[in-house]
Design a protein that fits this description.
This protein is mainly α and 496 residues long. The protein has three domains: 3-128, 3-Layer(aba) Sandwich (Rossmann fold), CATH 3.40.50.620; 203-300, Serine Threonine Protein Phosphatase 5, Tetratricopeptide repeat (Alpha Horseshoe); 311-488, DNA Cyclobutane Dipyrimidine Photolyase, subunit A, domain 3 (Orthogonal Bundle), CATH 1.10.579. 47% of the residues lie in helices and 5% in strands. The protein contains 21 helices and five strands. The protein has helices at 17-26, 38-41, 48-67, 79-90, 103-117, 148-158, 175-178, 203-215, 222-225, 238-243, 248-259, 276-300, 323-335, 341-353, 358-371, 376-386, 392-403, 418-425, 430-435, 455-461, 476-488, and strands at residues 3-7, 30-36, 73-76, 94-98, 122-126. β1, α1 and β2 form a beta-alpha-beta unit. The model is unreliable at 262-273 (pLDDT under 50). The protein binds flavin-adenine dinucleotide. The site of flavin-adenine dinucleotide has 29 residues, from α10, α12, α15 and α17.
């Protein structure tokens, strides 16, 4: 028996559910396949950063497979046609893969299954991207959760000790099959110009990043440090979780080892952690649950992919009434030239590295919606085109949370003040100065609102407002009143 393993968002060998099942069922006769879907590469929200990270991760995967005498067979084209072709050529009985839950992935997978099964090739799919999927967690009335806290409670009540799987043993591939694979192209060859300095891809790197997060003490200090963009206080595992170069079970098991919880037993979900180290790991696990929550929401409420989760907010009116002004404001936001240093620093970090800290993601998202009065979908799409970790669930969930249109959203009347956020989360302006060099010499007193610098201080700091650094493009208080008026005009309704 020979089985094809179709790699998608699981670019690793260890703790890979479908791959291990394929190895077990075929006695190691697995054909590892990745299909470079040309249709996806031409999509509206494709990011050069993610293409680059993915290609690098594919190289690492291929290298690791070669160490076992196997290979990654890279195919280019439509997954349904390519998988039928390789399954026939390999004489494979089945195609195994791990499930994905976005509306587009579900549609594609249905089509691929039908194509394979119509040719007598069995398919089997597995839970791997998340710890709990689909209908595994429901409210007491059997409905999907729409609020995070009870979802988290149900998640923690159900989870037990998790022992991630090792790497399966795979047999070498016959030469005629190896010949069918195309070389892994570069991003450039695919027509993408990558200008950002990106994190490295691949399974080994993911394990290294996780170890560094634990060994540096950052996981233990996570609850104290996670909100400060000037500190390396978060794991930076998001691109790895996005492409599956690490699994959520490996992350969860590492956090539990740090927590030293007494498993198997049900533990309290509320601040169980008594000491600081435990509090850190506990709140990091919460973030892993947020990731699952947003994947779950998009699965159960696919309309949220392109529309407000709460449809009542479809009636909110966006924009200033002047399309040219809106376009200019949007461009200033994209380029990090709004005159609000924390916003500008974060957007420049995104543009240059493909990653942004969670606190500043919330700040810039709130700013686009509540200060610039622009539709959250504009920002969501820009993020998708720039982020190395761009993920439909987390990105959509994050944007709708900030806009106040989503599940469990920040209520529309709670509006981030970008200057106060900056004072609180980057008190000395360490983060701002790193990404906005023209503000490097601005004194601490003015770093959060440099337009308030008197002319003499501007001269001393080498930063003339309106010349070296912009004056604020909007007035926060004026815009706040306006967005409140617009939101109040429509009535929120709970989504069922
Ligand atoms: C407007 C907005 C857009 C976002 N877009 C994305 C996105 O496209 N892709 C993405 O992975 N995350 C997104 N997030 C969530 C979060 O900002 C990132 O996951 C986090 O900053 C990644 O850094 P880290 O790996 O160091 O996270 P850590 O703090 O170390 O967290 C560990 C992991 O938990 C998950 N996670 C953490 N916070 C969240 C969250 N709020 N929601 C969902 N998952 C979370 C991520 O997988 C992350 O790698 C977004 C948040 C906002 C507010």
């Amino acid at each position: 028996m020979r089985i094809i393993h179709w790699f998608r968002r699981d670019l690793r060998l260890s703790d890979n559910t479908a791959l291990s099942a394929a190895a077990r069922d075929s006695d190691g006769n697995v054909v590892p396949v990745f299909v470079l879907d040309e249709g996806l590469l031409r999509g509206r929200d494709v990011a050069p950063a993610r293409v680059q990270f993915m290609l690098e991760s594919l190289h690492v995967l291929d290298d690791t497979l070669r160490q076992q005498g196997s290979r990654l067979i890279l195919l280019r084209g439509d997954p349904a046609a390519e998988l039928v072709r390789i399954a026939r050529a390999a004489g494979a009985d089945a195609v195994y893969f791990n499930r994905d839950y976005t509306p587009a992935a579900l549609k594609r997978d249905k089509r691929v299954r039908l194509a394979l099964e119509s040719q007598g090739i069995r398919t089997a799919s597995f839970k791997d991207l998340v710890i709990f999927e689909e209908d595994e967690l429901l409210t007491s009335s059997g409905q999907p959760f729409t609020v995070f806290t009870p979802f988290k409670k149900a998640w923690l009540m159900r989870v037990g000790k998790i022992q991630p799987l090792g790497k399966p043993a795979l047999k070498p591939l016959p030469e005629d099959l190896v010949q069918r694979g195309a070389p892994i192209p570069t991003a450039n060859e695919l027509g993408f110009a990558v200008t950002q300095t990106l994190p490295r891809g691949g399974e080994l790197e993911a394990q290294r990043v996780l170890s560094r997060f634990i060994e540096s003490g950052a996981m233990a200090a996570y609850s104290k440090q996670r909100d400060y963009p000037g500190i390396e206080g978060t794991s930076r595992l998001s691109p790895h979780l996005r492409f599956g170069t690490i699994s959520p079970r490996q992350c969860y098991a590492a956090a539990v080892a740090t927590l030293d919880y007494p498993f198997p037993s049900k533990r309290s979900f509320s601040p169980a952690a008594t000491d600081e180290k435990k509090a850190g790991a506990d709140s990091w696990i919460s973030e892993l649950i947020w990731r699952e929550f947003y994947i779950y929401i998009l699965y159960h409420f696919p309309h949220a992919n392109h529309a407000n989760f709460n449809r009542a907010y479809d009636a909110v009116h966006w924009g200033s009434g002047d399309p040219a002004l809106d376009e200019a404001r949007f461009q200033a936001w994209c380029e990090g030239k709004t005159g609000y240093p924390i916003v500008d620093a974060a957007m420049r970090q995104l543009n240059q590295t493909g990653w942004m800290h969670n606190r500043t993601r919330m700040i810039v998202a709130s700013f686009l919606v509540k200060d610039l009065l622009l539709d959250w979908r504009l920002g969501e799409s820009y993020f998708m085109r720039m982020l190395v970790d761009g993920d439909p669930g987390a990105n959509n969930g994050g944007w709708q949370w900030a806009a106040g249109t989503g599940t469990d959203a920040q209520p529309y009347f709670r509006i981030f003040n970008p200057v106060l956020q900056s004072e609180r989360f980057d008190p000395q302006g360490v983060f701002i100065r790193r990404w906005v060099p023209e503000l490097a010499r601005v004194p601490d007193l003015y770093i959060h609102a440099p337009h308030t610098m008197p002319p003499t201080v501007q001269a001393q700091a080498g930063c003339r407002i309106g010349k070296d650094y912009p004056a604020p493009i909007v007035d926060h208080n004026t815009q706040k009143e306006e967005i409140l008026r617009r939101f109040k005009a429509v009535k929120s309704e709970p989504v069922r």
